[in-house]
Amino acid sequence: MADKLKLLLVDDEDTLRKIMKDELIVQGYDVIDADSGQAALDALKDGYRDIVILDIRMDGMDGLEVLKHIRKDNLAGKVIMLTGVDELKIARESLDLGANDFMTKPFQFQNLFACIKRVMKEA
To answer: How many other CB atoms are there within 10 angstroms of residue 24's CB atom?
Structure first.
């Protein structure tokens, strides 16, 4: 059996983050979570993750800044950004900075699972 994909879920909305984490674990992923940009970077320094699911809008260090650190220091393989519908320009900027994909909130979990599978197929 293949090793589980290791995910880091980063969102400062506690309820959403906990629900997402539970759903991802049910799908068979090895998931840790962080409630801030700095907590995400600290978690990544403790171990490489296959995918980071990263909210753009957070207090303190935002998702774009975290993404820059992830790419600069090669802390994770793939990054999926989460954004509000009115932030599509910022989502496009995240792709320019090295994100592999983005999703708008709110979303259906099956769309998130499909997005994870899609980015893992990318070379």
So the answer is: 22
